[in-house]
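[step 3/7] inverse_fold.run input=structure_tokens len=218
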């Protein structure tokens, strides 16, 4: 029986780590399943996914540059065509039973080709405001799993399931018992209070700059 699955997404940790969490659960739930990741060349998923024990293939694809970048945007149509052809080759060779997308432009080509070939496509959306790729591809998805209530307004013609975000076991199992070990591992003083500043994508720089400018206050 074919138990091949493709998980596609990347560009940022917000897309990559939920994808890895999904893969880990599928490996536990589905006996002898084979999982292949598809991401974008030279992006962090090409390093993080193999570190977690999964094979990944990189597409020659990039996103649209909102800031004026004429040369990069000029090559975008050629990268997209190439990535669609590459995705077709991957799917015909790997023959996945389903394809799961977690967002990011890297997931676009392979999910689109899978939908054209009538392979069931599923989307996992981590954010309260969906990314462009997931909004475009939502009409092809069998089901869309979301982390926030009220997401139906973005996916009006799709079946939306409120599931929450996938969490890695290493985070889920974190508790006070291993706090000292964890702080020692990242070289923090167990005797001091620890402040965690957490932000993703565009929010990260604003938060980091604020902390640096206000270190005396903290």
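[step 3/7] decode complete -> sequence:
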């Amino acid at each position: 029986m074919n138990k091949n699955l493709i998980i596609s997404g990347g560009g940022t940790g917000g897309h990559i780590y939920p994808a890895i969490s999904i893969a880990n659960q599928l490996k536990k739930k589905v006996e002898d399943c084979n999982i292949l990741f598809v991401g974008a060349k030279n992006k962090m998923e090409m390093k993080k996914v193999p570190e977690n024990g999964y094979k990944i293939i990189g597409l020659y694809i990039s996103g649209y540059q909102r800031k004026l970048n004429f040369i990069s945007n000029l090559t975008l149509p050629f990268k997209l065509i190439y990535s669609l052809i590459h995705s077709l080759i991957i799917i015909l060779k790997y023959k996945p039973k389903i394809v799961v997308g977690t967002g990011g432009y890297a997931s676009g080509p392979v999910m689109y080709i899978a939908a054209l070939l009538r392979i069931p496509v599923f989307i996992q959306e981590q954010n309260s405001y969906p990314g462009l790729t997931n909004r475009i591809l939502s009409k092809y998805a069998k089901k869309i799993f979301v982390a926030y209530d009220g997401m139906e307004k973005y996916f009006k013609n799709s079946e939306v399931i409120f599931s929450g975000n996938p969490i890695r076991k290493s985070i889920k199992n974190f508790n006070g018992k291993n706090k000292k070990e964890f702080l020692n591992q990242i070289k923090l003083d167990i005797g001091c209070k620890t402040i965690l500043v957490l932000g993703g994508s565009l929010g990260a720089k604003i938060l980091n700059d604020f902390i640096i400018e206000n270190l005396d206050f903290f």
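[step 4/7] annotate
Helices lie at 13-29, 45-51, 70-94, 107-116, 132-137, 169-172, 179-185, 202-213.
The chain has a mean pLDDT of 88.
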